Amino acid sequence: FHDPALDRLVDAALTDNLTLAQAVARVEAARQLAGASDHAHLPQVNFHTYAEPTPDSSASYFQFGFDAKWEFGWFGRSTSEHRIAAGTLDAAYADAQSARVSVVAETVKTYLELRSAQQRLTLLDGVANDAQRRGDLVATRVRLRMAAPGELARAQTQSAAAQAALAEPRVAIVRSRHQLAALLGRAEPDDALLGEGAFPQLGEGGIASAPADLVRTRPDIRRAEADVLKSAGELGIARADRLPRLGLGGALTYAARVIGHTRLSDADGIVTFGPAIEIPLLDWGMRQAAVDARDAQLSASVFAYRQAVVDG
């Protein structure tokens, strides 16, 4: 629109809009989780302490030590977890871009409504002034007995109607100013940004890209594509849950007996190390039901993606 005031409003909205700030924060949260998803199948080390009483409660054992576990992301589990994290991050990016587009569009639309209402107010104010002057002229003619009293009543009615018509653009101006303030994350309108101004004129525009290229930039299509990726990862996790979980585990534990509740005996340590295996045997079909459900959800995501492309 080549309107400096509108450009300043859009820049301020992109910087201060609270909805857009939420979307950006969600992107950062998804980015952090996506970066940590690659670490899920690296060795994990923990430190622990706990006390265990003897069966007769005459003493207790204080234990402390380290335990480590390294679960292998086999059978597609690691790849599926990466897909879920990537899909979540892509969806957050798409939501942020959608919020950005909406904020810019709403800011420009509300600004045009504000300028249109100001223009209507100027025109209707001129009409009201003309009606007031006509009423004054008719009143003078009635006093000079050059016009009938009925003409004065009609002139006053027209003047009152013209004054009443001013209410609509005034309300529209107030509403638009407050809507713009909300888009800028502010409680009250800023007169420095929302003062009087002319209605902007749309410059010559052109589309340099093919329609298919424009479709690819739509945030809703990117969001639907991210949902497909995430659903595929969830299906992979459900399938991996039916298969063994393999890894390595170990621990270094020290235990000391508490004597008389005040003194510890010498601590003895033990080291354990070996494979960590978890094999599902009987779950009454719950894991298979989860696979079937995730498969159906993936199909729904694919259909949603196709619908988003058609709509786009």
What Rg, in angstroms, do the CA atoms define?
36 Å
Q: Count of DSSP helices? A: 8
- In helices, the fraction of residues equals 55-70%
Shape: elongated
Q: What's the overall average pLDDT, rounded?
A: 86
Task: Please report the total strand number as a whole number.
Answer: 5
Helix/strand order: HHEEHHHHHEEEH
* Strand coverage percent: 15-25%
- Indicate the structural class: alpha+beta
Largest beta-sheet details: 5 strands, antiparallel
Low-confidence region ranges: none
* First-to-last CA distance: 25 Å
How does this model look, in words?
The protein has 312 residues and is α+β, with helices and mostly antiparallel strands. It is 60% helix and 16% strand. It is built from eight helices and five strands; from the N terminus they run ααββαααααβββα. The protein has helices at residues 4-16, 18-37, 77-143, 149-165, 167-183, 211-216, 219-240, 286-311; strands at residues 44-53, 60-71, 245-259, 263-264, 268-278. Strands 1, 2, 3, 4 and 5 form a five-stranded antiparallel beta sheet that branches. A hairpin with a 6-residue loop joins strand 1 and strand 2. The relative contact order is 0.15.
